[in-house]
Amino acid sequence: MAPHQDLWKNIPWAVYILLLLAPLVIQANDSSDETYNVGGVLADYISNKTFVDVISELNFNSKYKTSRRMTYYGKTIRMDKNPIKTVFNVCDKLIDKRVYAVVVSHESTSGDLSPAAVSYTSGFFQIPVIGISSRDAAFSDKNIHVSFLRTVPPYYHQADVWLEMLNHFGYTKVIIIHSSDTDGRAILGRFQTTSQTYYDDIDVRATVEMIVEFEPKLDSFAEHLIEMKTAQSRVYLLYASTEDAQVIFRDAATYNMTEAGHVWIVTEQALSAPNTPDGVLGLQLEHVNSDHSHIKDSVYVLASAIIEMRQNETITEPPKNCDDSGVNWESGKRLFHYLKTRNITGETGQVAFDDNGDRIYAGYHVINMRPKQKRQIVGEFYYDPAKATMRLHINDSLIIWPGRQRKKPEGIMIPTHLKVLTIEEKPFVYVRRLTDDEVACVDDEVPCPLFNNTNGVENDYCCRGYCIDLLKALSQRINFTYELGLSPDGQFGHYILKNSTTGTLPSSPPKKEWTGLIGELVNERADMIVAPLTINPERAEYIEFSKPFKYQGITILEKKPSRSSTLVSFLQPFSNTLWILVVVSVHVVALVLYLLDRFSPFGRFKLSHVDSHEEKALNLSSAIWFAWGVLLNSGIGEGTPRSFSARVLGMVWAGFAMIIVASYTANLAAFLVLERPKTKLSGINDARLRNTMENLTCATVKGSSVDMYFRRQVELSNMYRTMEANNYDTAEQAIEDVKKGKLMAFIWDSSRLEYEASKDCELVTAGELFGRSGYGIGLQKGSPWTDAVTLTILEFHESGFMEALDKAWIFHGNAQQCEQFEKTPNTLGLKNMAGVFILVAAGVAIGVGLIIIEVIYKKHQVKKQKRMDIARHAAAKWRGTIEKRKTIRTSLAMQRQYNVGLNSNPGTISYTVDKRRYHRLGGGSRVPEKAWLGDNDMLRNRRYLDPTFKPKHSPKVHGPMLGKIKHSGNLMPPKYSPGYTSDVSHLVV
Question: Which residues are listed as membrane-spanning (predicted)?
Answer without folding.
Answer: 578-596, 648-674, 833-857
